[in-house]
Amino acid sequence: MATSTPTASPPVRLDDFEPAAREVLPKAIYDYFAGGSEDEAALRGNREAFQRYRFRFKVLASTLQPDTRCELLGDAFTMPVHLAPTATQRMAHPDGELAAARAASEAGVIYGLSTLSTASIEEAAAVSQGVRWFQLYMYRDRGITIDMIDRAARAGYRAVTLTVDTPILGRRERDFRNAFTLPGGMRYENLTGALSNSGKADLGESALSRYFTDQLDHALQWTDLEWLVGRSKLPVLVKGVVRADDARRSVAAGVRGIIVSNHGGRQLDYAIATLDALPDVVAAVRNEVPVLLDGGIRRGTDVLKALALGAQSVLIGRPYLWALAVDGYDGVRRMLQLMRDEITVSMSLLGVKRLSELSTDLLSRI
């Protein structure tokens, strides 16, 4: 677990946080956050996809103060960048999810809390007045699932995001080499008893992988999604869709949003890059529900490319974990401000005054 250690010089871009985080985090924890599955081709591919697009900017059309505001599911936000649900944030910093939730609330963006968080649903709600979404893994015991989504509703969360790309855990070889397990004294705070800890791991295995195998439902079907939509008191989004046909079936099942994601390259290796998958999903959904994207976002220009291709917002994961490791709440707050500054400058240079003006006409694929 890291302790708060400010960077030697103030970061000027998101990528400045990662090398500083690597200095303060134990190797096994850094590798857990940084790593992908197998060859890590999907992990690299998410970033490489953004490099294939260039801007065809407008002239004599800019403004010094472009409007970065957006709306999702009836809630208004300061910018189209939100904090994705990521597990076990107290491995990055003692304040973990509580620091990140506070920073998101202050910045006016969504905070996504993971099922496998090291702060509970209620703890995160107590420190944040902003919009929170609860990410759900479906447990074999439906009673556990019902309990968690009902707790989220009571605690003021605004949506449930069901992760659908994890029937089993991908082969994260860094975790196998490190025999990754939760540090002593840490547990999954949304659960109780044996379910709250992943246990120990031997060299060559991962305690988290074993936990997924033992506890989570690996046989989810479309009927399970329909059941969740019908049972949840909150709107349901699906996270982990990369195909147009799956997007259409999700909408037919009653979801209120689609998150195009390949789990940050941590599940099926050589999976399509999320930016490459985005246009087909957007076309299939036909504006019936919002489409969001995660995976590989590191720059304000990345955000604008995703929105030009039809996303209504993006989610970021690793960048805020590195910022959290480096400087806790202040690190995440600084990271979000950097992103907003980059978006504002890039919109002015691109010649758009508001996000609704972004379209494929402004992009050239190389």
- What is the terminal-to-terminal distance? 42 Å
Q: How large, in whole angstroms, is the Cα Rg? A: 19 Å
**CATH architecture classification name:** Alpha-Beta Barrel
Helix-strand sequence: HHHEEEEHEHEHEHHHEHEHEHEHE
Domain unit count: 1
Strand content: 5-15%
CATH class group? Alpha Beta
Helical percent range?
A: 40-55%
Instruction: Give me the side-by-side strand order of the main sheet.
Output: 4-11-10-9-8-7-6-5
Overall average pLDDT: 93
Low-confidence stretches are 3-7
CATH superfamily: Aldolase class I
CATH topology, which one?
Answer: TIM Barrel
Would you report the number of β strands?
Answer: 12
* Molecular shape: globular
Q: How many H/I helical runs?
A: 13
Describe the largest sheet. Answer: 8 strands, parallel
User: Based on helices, strands and strand pairing, what is the structural class?
Assistant: alpha/beta
Essential attributes:
TIM Barrel, 40% helix, 13% strand, 366 residues, 13 helices, globular, two-stranded antiparallel sheet, alpha/beta
